[in-house]
Design goal:
Radius of gyration: 19 Å
Structural class: alpha/beta
Order of helices and strands: EHHEEEEEEHEHEHEHEEHEHHEHEHE
Number of strands: 16
Number of helices: 11
CATH topology of the largest domain: Rossmann fold
């Protein structure tokens, strides 16, 4: 509970200040706890609001969330304006508004420019891989060359060791730049695949991190024992996996079954008549809680459909707020 003497003070944090206290290893553990809270019924997560700005190729997502017993609740506003490259501006922006859960008073404004979203999304991919991928892997594939494609692989490296990474991107120059950067960052072999199929074939973990509206990965390309983490589909029109991938998989796991049935890869499988909600193995939080089994053999094909949950923002924003207070980072403004 906040001190009533400080109710008019709000901590203001910039992206650079947030970056100084946000460590991926800590976020992985926090996000894991968030998924457990969600699937155990201890989270209040309304369905996200999506605002479209079509004339500027923009979409805005508003996600409120609260975990019972938490000292704060969070409302996140995150935008993607995909024509911004023409203006030499980043496509993503956003902020998180953190409130005292006992009074409703604002306590922290985290102007992260979508960085917390990026990190917590990558952390979710690592949590999924830790729960569903084989313990021993050698080759990983990533589809996409953007910020999320980088962070997903960095986060994956915290939970699984692997020797090689294959990357595919629509722009060969960006794919080559990605390969050079990740080779230096992770100290592993990184190759540029000419096609998605070349990247996917023989890989034991596949991460899709694009804004594609057409399927990129198909079932007959997959090897036994592969795990796929799909993070790009967070609105009905987006799709990275052919619906046959989900229908073929031994286990399909979602961050939220209801949300994925509307926004995620699961949405396309249901719409195509290949799956129903009841065919989903379970939610990631259920697997983490031991309520549903994770990987049971090295031959299983597993898919985790991640559309992004507000609980990830709640735990990450609280972590940032606590670390900033402890390290005396940021500035207070009166409201």
């Amino acid at each position: 509970m906040m001190d009533t003497r400080d109710r008019d003070k709000v901590l203001l944090l910039t992206k650079e200040q947030i970056q100084s206290v946000l460590k991926i290893e800590e976020v992985i553990e926090a996000v894991s706890d968030g998924f457990k809270a969600y699937s155990s019924g201890n989270a209040v997560v309304p369905f996200p609001v999506a605002l479209q700005v079509p004339e500027h190729s923009g979409d805005v997502h508003i996600k409120p969330g609260y975990i019972k017993g938490y000292p704060t609740y969070t409302i996140k506003i995150a935008s993607g304006f995909y024509d911004n490259a023409r203006l030499n501006l980043p496509s993503s922006h956003g902020m998180l508004l953190v409130f005292d859960s006992s009074t409703g008073w604002p306590v922290c404004l985290e102007i992260d420019r979508a960085m917390i979203t990026d990190v917590r999304t990558a952390a979710a991919g690592a949590v999924a891989a830790r729960a569903l991928a084989k313990e021993s892997i050698s080759r990983v594939a990533v589809i996409g060359t953007g910020v999320q494609a980088r962070l997903q692989i960095e986060a994956l490296s915290k939970v699984r060791k692997f020797k090689s990474l294959a990357v595919w991107g629509r722009n060969p120059d960006k794919a080559a730049q990605y390969a050079n950067e990740m080779r230096e960052r992770l100290g592993i072999e990184v190759s540029v695949a000419k096609t998605v199929q070349e990247a996917v074939t023989g890989s034991e973990v596949i991460v899709t991190a694009t804004m594609s509206t057409n399927p990129l990965v198909f079932a007959d390309w997959l090897s036994k024992g592969v795990h796929i983490t799909a993070v790009g589909s967070d609105s009905p029109e987006k799709q990275e996996l052919d619906a046959g991938v989900l229908a073929t998989a031994d286990k399909v796991v979602c961050d939220s079954i209801k949300q994925c049935a509307v926004l995620g890869e699961l949405h396309h499988a249901i719409e195509g008549g290949l799956m129903k909600e009841k065919d989903v193995h379970g939610e990631l939080g259920e697997v983490l809680l031991g309520q549903k089994r994770g990987r049971e053999s090295n031959q299983e094909i597993t898919v985790c459909d991640l559309t992004g949950l507000a609980v990830q923002d709640v735990v990450a924003s609280q972590l940032v707020y606590e670390r900033a207070l402890k390290r005396n980072i940021g500035s207070f403004i009166r409201v």
